[in-house]
Amino acid sequence: MRLPLFWLTDYVDPGMDASKLAARLAMTGTEVDRVHTHGVSALENFVVGRVLEREQHPDADRLSVCQVAIGEGDVSTIVCGAPNVAAGQTVGVALPGSVMPDGTRLKKAKLRGVPSNGMILAEDEVGIGSDHAGIMVLDDDLVPGTPLAQVLPISTDVLELEITPNRPDCLSVYGVAREVHAATGAPLNPPPWMEDPGTPGPVEGVTVEVQDAEFCPRFTARLFEDVKIGPSPRWLKARLMAAGQRPINNVVDITNYVMLLTGQPLHAFNFDLVAGGKLVVRRAGQGEQMTTLDDQVRTLDSSMHLIDDGEGPTSIAGIMGGQRSEVREDTTRVLMEAANWHGPTLQRTSQKLGLRTEASGRFEKGLPPEQSMWGTIVATQLMLELTGARLAPGTIDVGGEGPAPKTIRLREEKVTRLLGTAVPIREQADILEALEFDVHDAGDGLDVTVPAFRRNDVTREVDLIEEVARIWGLEKLPATIPGHGMSARLTPEQRLRRRAGDALVGAGFSEAIGWSFQAPEMARRLRIDDSAVKLRNPLSEDLAVMRTTLLGSLLTSVRHNTARGAEDVRLFEKGSVYFDRPHRREPTAAEARSTPLPDERMHLAALMTGRIRPASWGDGNPPTADFFAAKGVLETVLGALRVDFTVVRGADPFLHPGRAARVLVGGEDAGWLGEIHPGVAAEFGLARVAGFELDFGAVLPHAVVAPHYEDLTSFPAIRQDLAFWVPADRTASELVEVVRGAGGKLLKDVRVFDVYAREGQTSLAVRLEFRAGDRTLTDDEISPQREKIVKAVAEKLEGELRG
């Protein structure tokens, strides 16, 4: 939301500049995305002028040469292209050195040979309107040379606010003014809807029927006759332009102005085009069509709601009006509607139609029914003031106000306990009263009645404590550990996950954090099945399903880095993945009977591309990341967790054939390891990429949280080498596993150090290390173990000792 400060100060003046106000609001929970200036700058160069003479340009039919007084005794020659410029007019003038809204600095110029020392201004040239057809003509009583900023709001600071969904009351100028009042203590003017020029009762000739009261809790409307359509005054257009709205005409501008001021969207019907004078709020028929104000034909379904008259649909409820009843230049009767709509239903309609408006963005967050009348009152004031209209007696009001306000007990002891410090009870009351809560003393604290505009947000005592804390000052709260025996320690699982991450950081990896959502297209890019959990209400089409692997987001992150010049990239991610059914197990009986929830699993994945170590004078061309580099990192991670693992051949479609493996922990599948398939890597604009992904749920049960101390022995080891011929389809990991199993307790380490292949067979050479903690071993003790190893290899792997 764009908040012009000069509009804000109509209701509260905080007495501070924009940057300080932005910082104060941010500390109270209202995030300010940025602060910028709307309009012009170098204001000293913008002045009031008076056209003394106007002559035709000698070489251009559409240009005029004007002599303009810009101060006492100071006259400038200005060439002007506006058709309405004339002698005697009081105008706005930009002198050389002025900075225009687009950042252009005005200079002296020659136009068709005639010097021009400035510019006579139109509305759009100072950002207070969109009219460029002619110059602005100001009041005759203004004195030439008067700074133009004293006459027109030609420059203002604007706060770009990021309003959270639970605070639709802040999607209005007065709502933010209320927050500024509470945050700074600056006086707050009364709300603009305090004085109602209208009257209750029926409106002659107007009927409204609401067929779905749950969708439309309240519908208010007033009829205005003898309306004169025309341009809005400059003060109103200036506020709309600074807030990001384009002025159209006085009636349409009033609806936008009231929405921005009060937060209540409105719609103006050309009442002469409302057939039968009756409006009906109803569900749309399946396939029913209507043309909206943007000249688009919309096809509706039975889950949507519309407003129709005797001839059919005339508005999509709460989203956009219809073209058939729009206000036009010849409109003389206007029915001004301010209604309240059910947010979730309206949001689904907006999403289905791909049609999101300023109105729908407010309604979908949940507005109070009371707000409808606030908007109606302010719109009535402006219609009478700006259009010369006559208000027909009565007010359409179907539904009425919302539920009775809720009163919540705020206990002083609970405030102190949750915040970790005592906030004086009088200060608590002052803060809540500033936010327009009704406060009364109670024995152990305060009885607080919630206002209508906070009904959906403040429902519990803890919500009131949050209000007190954010206004009193979050920066004042001490850093304390909660009481009641609560522990601030990490759980064993959290400690292990953090240890795995630390191991990767030590191996030169950086942590990435990706979305849990991804595009449905990601499954095709990774060559995996597309049985992902689909979101009912996705943020966008590109974030419509839950991820089943961390690989997609990591490949995207790697590509993001390589595209910006990084050659050697090492990234890892810890995060959740989701399956549409229980993963690795059958559902329980209770799960089978209930609506199944996605099976959420915590994974760890790492990817590397480029060189495995930096180049140096002694190694100018280091090897690039491959299967074995990734396996080395995997060993580092699982070693930090004290987890034994093995790898077996894998065939995942996203991995390179022959360079793919599955990781087994405790005999169970725990993830994948290998090089990414070249075709998959190419989908992301990458070359050779290697990595792994582990399921923490399969790994952590086998991890050692607190490793036990073991004495280091000073007795020497006996190292021996053996080489075996094994069938070519046998793997090195199988040989190592068999050797370890046969070697007994004295065998401390086994490593493959040489591979030699011939047709049908592979020679694998292993280095054995035998050690005892209490003595020096002899060859006689080792020989039986060596013989067991040779025998086990022959029996289990069909291997033989190489000669």
TrEMBL record:
EC number from the UniProt entry: 6.1.1.20
Domain named TRNA-binding: residues: 40-149
Cofactor(s) recorded in Swiss-Prot or TrEMBL: Mg(2+)
Organism field: Solirubrobacter deserti
Reactions catalysed: tRNA(Phe) + L-phenylalanine + ATP = L-phenylalanyl-tRNA(Phe) + AMP + diphosphate + H(+)
Name of the protein described by the UniProt record: Phenylalanine--tRNA ligase beta subunit
Coiled coil: none
Positions that bind Mg(2+): 457, 463, 466-467
Main location class: cytoplasm
Domain of life (superkingdom): Bacteria
Keywords: Aminoacyl-tRNA synthetase, ATP-binding, Cytoplasm, Ligase, Magnesium, Metal-binding, Nucleotide-binding, Protein biosynthesis, RNA-binding, tRNA-binding
Statement: the UniProt record of this protein carries the keyword Transit peptide: no
Database matches in PANTHER family: PHENYLALANINE--TRNA LIGASE BETA SUBUNIT, PHENYLALANYL-TRNA SYNTHETASE BETA CHAIN AND LEUCINE-RICH REPEAT-CONTAINING PROTEIN 47
Family: Belongs to the phenylalanyl-tRNA synthetase beta subunit family. Type 1 subfamily.
PROSITE patterns on file: B5, FDX_ACB, TRBD
Subunit structure: Tetramer of two alpha and two beta subunits.
GO MF annotation list: phenylalanine-tRNA ligase activity
Note on how the cofactor is bound: Binds 2 magnesium ions per tetramer.
FDX-ACB domain span: 713-802
Cellular compartments annotated: Cytoplasm
Record-linked Pfam families: B3_4, B5, FDX-ACB, tRNA_bind, tRNA_synthFbeta
